[in-house]
Each structure stands twice: as structure tokens, then as C-alpha cells.
Design brief:
21 strands, 15 helices, single chain, alpha/beta, binds NADP nicotinamide-adenine-dinucleotide phosphate, Aldehyde Dehydrogenase, Chain A, domain 1
Length: 498
């Protein structure tokens, strides 16, 4: 086993506070070098029933714990994550591949979310509001939903889990969590941290297994009343339609085709820096990664020169080696998908000016590496400009005006993140108004969300819910309207008395 850090060769499900094995398991490999790191159990879905039973029991008690006391667990978890940040980051790099600097950033998001949601333990605000009738009091309050299910992807194996599980926990729910099979270690670590932080048994349950078995069992379980999912569009649509049939609340965060607009008055050095960071960071495997650059014709060539120079400086390899800035692709299937889009771009007539090939010299051949790739003179309607590639591939699309830039930005089926580089204050405010994505950046790339703001997108990116921010509480709580009549007589609302 490559990971002495983990101190285990096989992981276990975490159900009702017990660490439970399974008959079936799969190897988890390090995408940087193909080494087996650990074995993950694969439930056939049956463990979901046991986990839900444990969760139902635990949730009844947890809901009665005052929220400020629930918060103590999250404060403690935040402290433990902080103390273990480096270990978590190294394990994260081993299972996911992202470079250490980014892995530390991801763990930091989890720490921030722990403290932020712990703070919600003393807020969880509802409203008091005037009543229509005399001697009557009215208010609304948040209530737990019960047992909630979360399904997370491999690309942010700890941050996304905290965006979902911490609001659920502070809201008085119990959680069944199915992490992505590629990245189970962060789930193991987070569950251990919550256990050691005093979370009562059964409030968090981790069930490992494939989406088609464990995920499907969760989606169809009558006692899981909310499903919160982050992942691909196809899977999300399927989950939404299955949940719809059961009148189950479902929150979806899915793909993106995020663009950076570079106007003729932009600081081009800054723009190039922002593009390279957003496009090639995490090897382009962020839902918010920039995969389109919409550039004003007048600065296209100057921007290209800067981008090519910066791409040249990128070093690619194992993320544990801190001299590297770009790590591997998660697996062979991911790499083949990226290669197929590089071919599609060439067939469509876009001009390939950087990368476009797999890196397999020496040790790189043991992992999955694609060179940072740049197409220019791409057309907005090309598939490489429309479809999510989820790799280090960027299409540069020239435009003639601000209005055309906005139109191209909005002309895709996704709506997660967008950005504009400009020094014109009027354009800043027009762009903020007209870009139809859930996240907008000005003079920064498309990545870098902060956890106290709502995270999510419009159109095909989601279904109107948001992860993180106080808005995440809406997914995991029900609103209750309460009327207290202290008049001592029957007062009938909306009924004429004359
Ligand atoms: P995916 O294939 O949809 O997998 C995501 C999760 O869903 C995994 O845990 C997977 O389990 C599970 N799953 C698969 N099939 C399922 C089914 N039939 N029922 C229930 N669960 C099922 O997505 P991915 O390729 O791993 O992740 C990349 C995608 O996530 C990209 O499209 C990216 O844009 C998106 N993403 C979006 C955001 C956002 O917030 N908008 C953030 C990050 C990533 P197994 O893999 O274990 O089978």
C-alpha cells in the first residue's frame, strides 16, 4: 500500500457509529502513478437500509438537541480539520491527483464551512411578522427534514461533502452519504473527525458503493426525504426524475461550460494569469473551470501570446511534488473523453495552438496526464465550445463587441460561473446584470468561490437550489409557519365580520 499516512489497507462503511466491512471491494488507485492506495468496500445497496434505520433513530434525538449544542460538534470538527490539514491535503492529493497547494485549499474550504455552519447554530433564523388579527402572534421557523441523502463527486471529495453534510447536521437531520468510489478516503477521514468530535452515532452514515447500486438505493428509499447531488448532468437528470415520482426534494449541482470574457480595455497580463489558473488548475476538472475564453478581436493576438508564454511555464506531474502546478486526470475514461474532444475540436476546424496530446514519458506514463491545451478561432456553436470536457482544454472564441461577448457567454445550456476582465466601470455593472450564471467574477477567473455565498448555477447546471452559503439551509430544512392566538376567542382569518 502506498499510503502509510492512512494507516489502513481497507476502508469500512460507517453505519450507526460502527465501522462495517463488506464482501465486495474495489482498488482505489492514485491517478498520478496508478498505485493502489487502499481498498474501498462496495455495498450492493443493502447497507443503505441498515444505515437509514440507524439514521432514523439517531435523528429523533439529534433534532431535540439545541442547535447551539449541535454547533459545538462542528466547531470541534473544524478544529480537528485545521489540526490535520496537511495530512488531509496529502491524502486528498493521493486519491484525487490535484496538486498539494489546491488540496490544502480544498481542505480549508471544509474548515471554513465547519465554522460557518457552527455559527448558524446560533442563528437558523426564521421570521417574526405581524399577524392580521389583534392579539395574535405569527412566525416562521426552520425544522429538520429527517434523514437526508448526499451523493458527491470525486473532484472535490471533502469540500462538497462539507457544503452538504454540515448544513444538514446543524439543521437537525441525519445524513446518509455516498461518496464517489474513486475518492473514498476523504469520506473516511471526515467521518472519523465527526465521530471524534462527539457527533452521536447514526447522525452521519457513510455507505460506499457505486452510484448504480448504493446511489440508486438511496434515491428510491422511502425514508430519505431529501437527495442532494453533485455530479454530471446525465446522472442528475435521472436522479431528479426518480425523486420527482416520489415527491422527494432534490437539490442538483451539475456541470458547467464557464467562460472568461476579455475586453479590449482589459489588463491582459492579469487576464492571462486568471485564465491559466481557472482553466488548467485541477487539470480543468473543476465544475467552475474556465473552458471558454471570449476575447475581443482587438486584443486577441496579444492575449494569445501571453497565454502561450504562461502555458509554457506550467509543470505537469504528481501533485505531491510541489514543483508541479498541474496534476493528473482522474482516470483512463476521463483521459479518453478529453482526447476525443481534442480530436473533435480539430475536426471542427478550431486552431490548436498549444498541447493537444497525452504526456506519457517516463513516470508520467504510469498516470493519466494531458498537456494544457488551447484552441483558438473557435466558433461559439462548435461542440468544444458547448459541451463540458472536464479537462485542461480551452476554446478561445473571438468577438467584436461587448454585446456579442455576453451573447456568446449565455449561449450554452449551462449557467454556473462566468467572468469578465475589463477596466470600464459601466461594463462591470452591465456584465453583472446580463451574465446569466449563478456566479459572476470581475477581473478574476471563474474559480474561487467562498463558502458563505451561495454556490450553484442556472439553466442546465442545477435545479434552482444552492450549496453552501446560508441558502444551503433551505435544502435541508422545512419551513413551519406558526400562529399563536392569545385573544381567548376564536378569530377567523380573512372572514368578514360586518
Ligand atoms: P457522476 O458520474 O455523475 O458521479 C457523481 C456521483 O454520482 C458519484 O458519487 C457517482 O457514484 C454517483 N452516481 C453515478 N450514477 C448514479 C446513479 N445512477 N444514481 C445515483 N448516484 C449515481 O459525475 P462525475 O463524473 O463523477 O463528476 C464530475 C461532474 O460533476 C462534472 O459534470 C462536474 O461539472 C460536476 N460537478 C459539479 C459541481 C457543482 O457544484 N456544480 C461541483 C463538482 C463537480 P460512483 O462514481 O461511485 O459510481
Amino acid at each position: 500500500m502506498a499510503s502509510t499516512l492512512l494507516n489502513a489497507t481497507t476502508l469500512n462503511h460507517f453505519i450507526g457509529g460502527n465501522w462495517v466491512g463488506d464482501n465486495k471491494s474495489a482498488d482505489v488507485t492514485n491517478p498520478a502513478n496508478g498505485e493502489t492506495i487502499v481498498h474501498v468496500p462496495l455495498s450492493d445497496g443493502g447497507a443503505v437500509d441498515t444505515a437509514v434505520e440507524a439514521a432514523k433513530k439517531a435523528q429523533k434525538e439529534w433534532a431535540k438537541v439545541p442547535a447551539p449544542q449541535r454547533a459545538e460538534v462542528l466547531f470541534e470538527a473544524g478544529n480537528k480539520m485545521k489540526a490535520r490539514k496537511e495530512r488531509l491535503a496529502q491524502l486528498l492529493t493521493m486519491e484525487n491527483g490535484k496538486v498539494l497547494e489546491e488540496a490544502r485549499g480544498e481542505v480549508q474550504e471544509g474548515i471554513d464551512m465547519a465554522f460557518y455552519m457552527a455559527g448558524e447554530g446560533r442563528r437558523l433564523f426564521g421570521h417574526t411578522t405581524p399577524a392580521e388579527l389583534p392579539n395574535k402572534f405569527s412566525m416562521s421557523q426552520r425544522c429538520p427534514v429527517g434523514v437526508v441523502g448526499i451523493i458527491t463527486p470525486w473532484n472535490f471529495p471533502i469540500a462538497i461533502a462539507t457544503w452538504k453534510s454540515f448544513p444538514a447536521i446543524i439543521g437537525g437531520n441525519a445524513v446518509i452519504w455516498k461518496p464517489a468510489t474513486e475518492t473514498p478516503i476523504m469520506a473516511h477521514e471526515l467521518a472519523k473527525i465527526l465521530e471524534e468530535s462527539g457527533l452521536p452515532k447514526g447522525v452521519l452514515n457513510v455507505v460506499y458503493g457505486k452510484g448504480s447500486t448504493v446511489g440508486d438505493a438511496m434515491v428510491h428509499h422511502d425514508d430519505i426525504r431529501v437527495m442532494s447531488f453533485t455530479g454530471s448532468n446525465d446522472t442528475g437528470r435521472n436522479i431528479a426524475s426518480e425523486c420527482g415520482k416520489q415527491l422527494k426534494k432534490v437539490s442538483l449541482e451539475m456541470g458547467g461550460k464557464n467562460a472568461i470574457i476579455v475586453m479590449d480595455d482589459a489588463d491582459l497580463d492579469l487576464a492571462a494569469e486568471g485564465i491559466v489558473w481557472s482553466a488548467y488548475g485541477t487539470s480543468g476538472q473543476r465544475c467552475t473551470a474556465a473552458s471558454r475564453v471570449i476575447v475581443h478581436d482587438d486584443v486577441k493576438e496579444r492575449l494569445e501570446e501571453r497565454l502561450l508564454a504562461k502555458i509554457e511555464e506550467l509543470t505537469i506531474g504528481d501533485g505531491l511534488d510541489e514543483t508541479n502546478n498541474v496534476g493528473p486526470i482522474i482516470n483512463q475514461a476521463g483521459m479518453e473523453k478529453i482526447q476525443s474532444y481534442i480530436q473533435i475540436g480539430q475536426d471542427e476546424g478550431a486552431n490548436l495552438i498549444a498541447g493537444g496530446y497525452v504526456l506519457n514519458d517516463g513516470d508520467l506514463g504510469k498516470g493519466h496526464y494531458v498537456a494544457p491545451t488551447l484552441f483558438t478561432d473557435a466558433k461559439p456553436e462548435m461542440r468544444i465550445s458547448q459541451e463540458e470536457i472536464f479537462g485542461p482544454v480551452v476554446s478561445l472564441i473571438p468577438v467584436k463587441s461587448f454585446d456579442e461577448a455576453i451573447e456568446v457567454n449565455n449561449g450554452v445550456s449551462y449557467g454556473l460561473s462566468s467572468s469578465i476582465f475589463t477596466t470600464d466601470a459601466n461594463r462591470v455593472f452591465q456584465a453583472q446584470r446580463d451574465l446569466d450564471t449563478g456566479i459572476v467574477y470581475v477581473n478574476a477567473g471563474t474559480t474561487g468561490a467562498e463558502i458563505h455565498l451561495p454556490f450553484g448555477g442556472t439553466k442546465g447546471t442545477g435545479n434552482g437550489h444552492r450549496d453552501s452559503g446560508v441558502q444551503a439551509l433551505d435544502v435541508f430544512t422545512e419551513w413551519k409557519a406558526v400562529y399563536i392566538d392569545y385573544s381567548g376567542k376564536l378569530q377567523r382569518a380573512q372572514i368578514d365580520t360586518e
